[in-house]
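Q: I have 275 residues here and want to know how they pack in 3D. Can you give me a structure?
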Amino acid sequence: MGSDVINMEFKNTRTINNLDLKQIAESGQCFRWEEVDESTFLIPGESYECRDREPLLIRQKGNSFDVSCSDEEWDSYWRVYLDLNTDYEAIGRLIMNSGDDHVKECYELGSGIRIVKQDLWEMIITFLISQNNNIGRITGSVKKLCNICGHFPYPGDIDIACLENRELGLGYRVKFLQDMYLYGQEHPELLALLPKLSYAEAMEELVKRNGIGPKVANCVCLFGLHHVEAFPVDTHVRQLLDKYYPSGFDYGYYGSKAGIIQQYLFYYELKHKGN
């Protein structure tokens, strides 16, 4: 996407609290944001439903954001994408009123994180790739995958045999991805069905697919379907829960916002890795 920046200009400025672009970019939920400089990112705009949406160039100065889109584009798509309809200040108060000193510390470090509502198909494929992987390798594999057809490949866009190319770095996940691409091509109704389901129903439907277990399904629910009660648990999250909450984590207190809390916890661990 780098060449796209050359011909883009900022059209509007928005004031937004509790939003930090760099924190989101580093939080392990999105793998296609391109960092232009320390405060500016280029975010892909295409989705399964809209292949020709322009990317968003967005620059942050404190709580002021310069954006390259029109008012109409902002209100119809990017506002939802950046989760601006969720009251993150209220979530902050919920955390500060809790008796959980560790979550408070995590929130103070990563209070600019929001749950970005990304393309559903992209989340299914991306989090299949994420299994037993790290952010750097996932990002690299996703970028190489996009280079095949110039955008994120949707069902029918690629010959699934190309997924076997070792340069993509997909390893044992190739079979899962091939099966998913075939299923998506044969059952396009899946992407229309999933957003209509409850969290529990979506989980039940997702784990039917080869290679999708509870962790991947929860990631898809959280980042692709915006079920913010979803709380993905992989090896790293299990370790932090065992470390800080040996008697158990109080999911009930955070209720329908537990997935947002998970991101604060996970981001804290990422920033303190090796400490």
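Q: Anything worth noting?
A: The longest helix spans residues 258-271. The chain is about 45% helix and 10% strand.
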